[in-house]
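Section handout 9: paired folding examples.
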Amino acid sequence: QVQLVESGGGLVQAGGSLRLSCAASGFTFSAYAMGWFCQAPGNERQFVAAISWGGGTTYYADSVKGRFTISRDNAKNMVYLQMANLKPEDTALYYCAKGRRRQIGGIADYDYWGQGTQVTVSS
C-alpha cells in the first residue's frame, strides 16, 4: 500500500532553516508528481510546493518563493523541502502528498497524504 512518511520538522527561530524529508513506498515513485502542503490550526490545508515526476518542473506558493526549494531523488524514493529564512507564519503541520499523474496539478490532483511533520517558527 502507498505510504508517505515525513520527517525533519521541529522548532526553529525566525530566519532559520529546516529540511523536510518524505519517504515514499508502495507505488512507482518516479511516475508521479509530488507535493508539499501545510495546515495551521483553524486553517484549511494549503499548497506549498510541487515537483513533477522527473523533477524538471517545480511550482511554489507565492508566500514561499525564493525561500523554499522542493527536490526529489527518484533512486531513493524521497522528496524534500528545503526551507530557509523561516517566518513565524510558516508554523504549521507539513504534509507530503502523492500526485495522481506525472505533471503538477491542483490540490484535487493528490490522492495520498502522509501524517505530517510539525514546523514551529518562533519570533
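Moving on to protein 2 of 2.
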Amino acid sequence: QVQLVESGGGLVQAGGSLRLSCAASGRTFSSYAMGWFRQAPGKEREFVAYISRRDDSTYYSDSVKGRFTISRDNAKITVYLQMNSLKPEDTAVYYCAAGGMGSWNPSMYAYWGQGTQVTVAS
C-alpha cells in the first residue's frame, strides 16, 4: 500500500514556474514507477510525465516536453515536477501516481494522490 500526497500547486502568471511535490508513504517507494497526470475541467485525465523505477529514465508528453522536469528522491520518498514557462493551458488539477511500470496509461497506476490545483493566469 502506498499513500501519496501532492503539494506545491497555486496561482502563477504565464511564463512563471512552480514545483510540485508528491510525498509517499511506505518503504517500497523505490520499487514503483511514478507518474504525473493532470485533469482540466470538462476534460479527461491527461498524462504529463513519468519516471521509471529502475534507472530513473523519464518520459514526457509532447505538450510539456522541454518545459517540465520529473525527478525523484528515494531517500525522501518524494517525486517532483518542476514546471517552467507555464502557459494558461497548463491549468488543471495535477495528480501523482505510483505503479509497477511507467506508462502514459493511467490504468497502469495502482495508487493516486488527491491532486493539487495549478492555475496559470494569462
